[in-house]
């Protein structure tokens, strides 16, 4: 693009004004192939095998990972998002018992989520039996609670759900019954599995977005002359196609559309 296209703000022409910073960004713009592989890495890391297969075909790039191997993580995530925590724990142990054995905080979080689901079930009816929830708390969580002050606090807060009506929960209790808790723990489980398998627990795209946000913050703190608003610069047509493919849904990637659960990184 010629210098004539970069006009000063005082110019009377209608040609759009380009900030000097934007010109520099344009000079180092990543290639379409680089963006495609970032998207593929994101889909693989976060467990969307069907979308990854479709994207590989549409973007005409080679898959660097056995996409079918992701299915175990998908099945575990599906169980957690549906509230079937016992099945998720069993699948994790079948995959590798060390994942939970070496991560007591994650194990406790899963057990507490299982308690939440039991409480959700027993309090859904006016005359619901709360004994299964109490028995589970006594046998599975109470022995672990003394080992960590946070465990004890989390257990006490969760049991408080048995006291207050679900339609009138305090701000500290309401999040326990919100779907976001399932999603947060499912993400932690996915990261733990990847780490156990010797893989990166977070997609490169997420790391790049965090690095970009950090760099922008530092630049603004240093009063650098940068535009008031900065786009990520990763909005590629193929990336958009991937989002559309995920929204259309396939049997393996149902959690990308169920309950509005589309990851904000690709929405």
UniProtKB/TrEMBL annotation:
Chain ranges of the CTLH domain? 69-126
**What residue spans carry the region label Disordered?**
241-267
Query: In what ranges is there compositional bias, type Polar residues?
Result: 241-255
Q: Which Pfam families does this UniProt record tie to the protein?
A: CTLH, LisH
In terms of superkingdom, the source organism counts as Eukaryota
Record's function text:
Involved in the proteasome-dependent degradation of fructose-1,6-bisphosphatase.
In terms of PANTHER family, this protein maps to: RAN BINDING PROTEIN 9-RELATED (PTHR12864)
Q: What is this protein called?
A: Protein FYV10
Organism, as annotated: Aspergillus leporis
